[in-house]
Design brief:
The protein is mainly alpha-helical. It is built from eight helices and seven strands, in the order H-E-H-H-H-E-H-E-H-E-E-E-H-E-H.
């Protein structure tokens, strides 16, 4: 499952996995699990993250393949937001060559203007951490949380400049990845502008093709 920040990728991945009765995982889930269990891979990932570095592809791939092997015989699986780069996709293909590789790459495509609107409009309550959105779920009283009345604030990565940078990085990294799966004949692209149910139904249709 591929998609830019703000595309609803996590929500749709959970819905699709539930509909297909298959397990799903995101790379962030694997990092947290390995660190919680204090595995060798978890310690290696933690060291990189504490330095502010990206976790190397070989560590991430090892975590993913360990998870995939643990879920063999469950009728398939769904990877949420992984791979993120062409190098990761190529490494994943090499690791999965004996099992036939990836069947489908689902891409939730949302135009940049809509992504910017979704991401830059998000606010969080300082007291209870309840989120709201100035467009889709605005607070009844400007600047105040509907739930507890606390002050609302915007996280650093949700301000306009940060959103623009996040989207720029995503599209730079992902364009070659999308083309890789398109050339392989397994990319299925869905318009992510619509209702949650509508986008979810379109994704399930592409899986059934």
């Amino acid at each position: 499952m591929l998609g830019p920040p703000g595309a609803g990728k996590g929500t749709q991945a959970a819905r699709v996995a539930e509909s297909l009765s298959v397990p799903k995982v995101a790379s962030g889930d694997l990092f947290r699990d390995h660190q919680a269990r204090d595995t060798e891979l978890g310690r290696l990932a933690r060291t990189c993250m504490e330095r502010g570095d990206l976790v190397p592809d070989d560590i991430t791939i090892r975590m993913v393949m360990e998870w995939v092997e643990a879920h063999e015989g469950e009728g398939g699986f769904l990877l949420d937001g992984f791979p993120r780069t062409l190098a990761q996709a190529e490494a994943l293909d090499r690791e999965m060559v004996e099992s036939g590789g990836i069947d489908r790459a689902l891409y939730i495509n949302v135009n940049t203007e809509e992504l910017y609107r979704r991401l830059a409009g998000r606010w969080i309550c300082r007291s209870c951490q309840t989120p709201c959105h100035e467009h889709s779920s605005p607070p009844a009283v400007a600047g105040k949380c509907d739930r507890c009345g606390g002050d609302l604030y915007q996280r650093d990565d949700d301000n306009a400049e940060a959103v623009q940078k996040r989207l720029g990085v995503f599209f730079k990294e992902t364009e070659p990845l999308v083309q890789f799966y398109r050339e392989a004949g397994i990319l299925r692209e869905v318009d992510g502008v619509g209702t949650v149910d509508g986008v979810g139904a379109a994704l399930l249709e592409t899986v059934a093709e």
